[in-house]
Amino acid sequence: MEKTKVIVGLGSCGIAAGAGKVYEEIEKIKLTDNLDFELKKTSCIGMCFKEPLVEIIDESGSFLYGNVSVKKVDEIIEKHIQNFAPIKEYIVKSDLFDTPDKGYFDGQIKIALRNCGQIDPESLEDYEEKNGYDALKKIANEKISTQDIIQTILDSGMRGRGGGGFPTGLKWRFANNSHSDKKYIICNADEGDPGAFMDRSVLEGDPHSVLEGMIIGAYAIGASYGYIYCRAEYPLAVKRLNIAILQAREKGYLGEDILGIEGFNFDISVKEGAGAFVCGEETALIGSIEGERGMPRKRPPFPAVSGLWKKPTNINNVETYANIPWIINNGAKDYAKYGTAKSKGTKVFALTGKIKNGGLVEVPMGITIKDIIYKLGGGIIDDKKFKAVQLGGPSGGCIPEYLSDTIVDYDSVNATGAIMGSGGMVVMDETTCMVDIARFFLDFTGKESCGKCTFCRVGTTRMLEILTRITEGQGKQGDIELLEELSYQIRDASLCGLGQTAPNPVLTTIKYFRDEYEAHIRDKKCPALNCKKLLTYEVIEELCVGCLVCKRGCPVNAIEGEKQKVHFIKQDLCTKCGDCYSKCKFDAIKIY
Amino acid sequence: MRIKRIQQVEKIKDNVSSDIDLALLNPVIKKFKNKKGNLIPILQNAQNLYGYIPEAVFRRLAHETGLKINDMYGVATFYAQFRLKPVGKHIVRVCHGTACHVQNAVKVTDDLINYLNVKDGETTEDRIFTLETVACLGCCSLAPVMMIGDETYGKLSGKKATDIVKDIKRKEVAKNKDKQIVNISNN
């Protein structure tokens, strides 16, 4: 009989939710009670909304416990492990019965995330057990030619998962066609989009799959050295990558004459980024590895011809590489089976914002946005009204509720004015102000603009000023048109993707939520009741009992009133802090 | 644009710089000297040693490695990671990513600004805290989030965040008192 396994999810968000302490507690009980089970670590299981997660696998099957606090550990071990009585109400997923969270798992197809939450990311043996490095072995044993590998990737129809959507096989072919004594391969792990953490989860959860993808890519294009350019904000990912690289070197997956393929010498090192969003752009990233300010360069020449240190270079994103071994193992056809005519395979999304089941989901292309939000995501927090979903981060746009039947593929998403991007999906409800969201993104891109192109540098600043003015009630007639004009100019006159797409959040919110802009400008009102300066707080006379709570709590003494008499807010003094609103037990304060 | 990050060069008549042990840099210089693309790793390592990059360190690095001081300064002011001023013992990083923003991260920062009495990017007078807003910490499902040191705190409100910071402050103050008592009793 196999030993019972207890696996704790120790990804960044698991740890933040307290999984580290849960692990220690289990370890402690195991030691003190001398229990016979295997305690293991894994990384992100994807179900961030139920962290910390603990999976118990015994002879009857697998049981995933959610929201495990230190307090619950004792109970779970006693009932489940010692008395074989699983505690159904804590279980979020099981082989044996359905759970209320079933919808989250159904409809997911895991290719890039195939091992995340399944294996110990610091164990090469775990990865090998799950067919790890089999793709590389297959290439070595069957002597598959570089052209055949590239053809397979082309046939799979996979497009770059970093957001651009350029066919990966084509990129490899260009790099393969360039002749040079030295070529490089780079993994873009500078996941800077606010609201996106797919790459972090893959790097933390399954670093070897990225290495294997890179090694295969290096072989296909003829590269001899690789870099993983990883955000410094992801210390755990950097640590696990470095462990994985050492293990791969020891086992001969990196080094000279890899797996007996004569002349195939390849090694990888990790470069830590230093915090600049623009370095996600490939030419800026190359500049940064070279030790310069990460400023984009003119293309052509494309990196495939002249990239890092002027040598042919291939750059792909983390998720792209993680897919490669699966495609080689299972064949292009199996991959192309998923998806739509022009977008094949699966895509990982980071589902966040006002959504019940926030976390990572991997879905086949072609699923509708509505299905992701309601079937997998469980709907909106507090069952409020779904307003829009933001796709593609600062380069993307907001897709309104009435277009939620849009299917997820590169072309359909582009048609709405948003972009697929790297996979951040931020869900917004009726309390999110769309003008404020546009302002938020412009603030971001303005700060992150490298400053090279005038239109991006100055244009984003001017747009931010206008948007700030609107949210503060100083909007003027003509502001919307001015924003649009600036948007087109920035889009047309910027060198790199950052500038070219920076206006997208503004253009899409104007396109779909023009009435909100107009309400801010014309009526000086924020329909979502979000923009502080446009709010009015008032006492509802019928409901006020005169308890003095709001009066005492008001930091600026803007409330007048006596005991058991209706209170009154002096509008000229009110700073709209909302304190009275949250403190009133009788719901006698209204905001409009 | 990042140019805003350039700090006003205050001529602090190096009462800070004089305490800096430049010898600590020797292993870094040895490791990276004359290596291609070494500039950013050198600065990252230097910052790990001192918590920020003091002027004297720039000069020493320029002297020893042949890197140009203006190139180093250009890089240091371009990337958000590099600091040109000393920081507090605890760096409080409040996430202002999209998910945190829609869950009211602004309120968290506002409350911390009020409590600590510093602006974004500044250090408290007692040098215990530096407050920073950052783009995204990648823990979006726990939004709003902040990080203090390596510890991540999720599902915050303004009050919860302030309480966490208050708690750390209390512990720091207690530690200092203990030290003083030890000093006095030793004397």
Q: Mean of the pLDDT scores of chain B?
A: 85
Overall geometry of chain A comes to globular
Largest protein interface? Answer: A-B, 60 and 43 residues
Uncertain runs of chain A with pLDDT below 50, 5 residues or more?
A: none
- Please give the largest β-sheet of chain B: 4 strands, mixed
The level-1 CATH class of the largest domain in chain B: Alpha Beta
Number of domains of chain A: 5
- Spatially, the strands of the biggest sheet of chain A line up as 2-1-3-4-5
Content of β-strand of chain A: 5-15%
CATH superfamily of the largest domain in chain B: Glutaredoxin
As laid out across the biggest beta sheet of chain B, the strand order is 2-1-3-4
General description of the model:
The mean pLDDT of chain A is 93. With 592 residues, chain A is an alpha/beta fold. The N and C termini of chain A lie far apart (66 Å). Chain A contains 23 helices and 18 strands. Chain A has five domains: 5-100, 3-Layer(aba) Sandwich (Glutaredoxin); 124-335, NADH-ubiquinone oxidoreductase 51kDa subunit (Rossmann fold, 3-Layer(aba) Sandwich), CATH 3.40.50.11540; 346-429, Ubiquitin-like (UB roll); 434-523, de novo design (two linked rop proteins); 536-591, 2-Layer Sandwich (Alpha-Beta Plaits). Chain B has seven helices and four strands; from the N terminus they run H-H-H-H-E-H-H-E-E-E-H. Chain B has helices at residues 26-32, 39-50, 55-65, 69-78, 98-102, 105-116, 158-186, and strands at 90-95, 129-134, 146-148, 151-153. A four-stranded mixed β-sheet of chain B has the order 2-1-3-4, with helices on one face. In chain B, a hairpin with a 2-residue loop joins strand 3 (146-148) and strand 4. The interface between A and B is large, with 60 and 43 residues.
Labels describing this entry:
heterodimer, A: 592 residues, alpha/beta, Glutaredoxin, Rossmann fold, Ubiquitin-like (UB roll), 5 domains, five-stranded mixed sheet, 23 helices, 18 strands, 39% helix, B: 187 residues, alpha+beta, four-stranded mixed sheet, 7 helices, 4 strands, 46% helix, flat
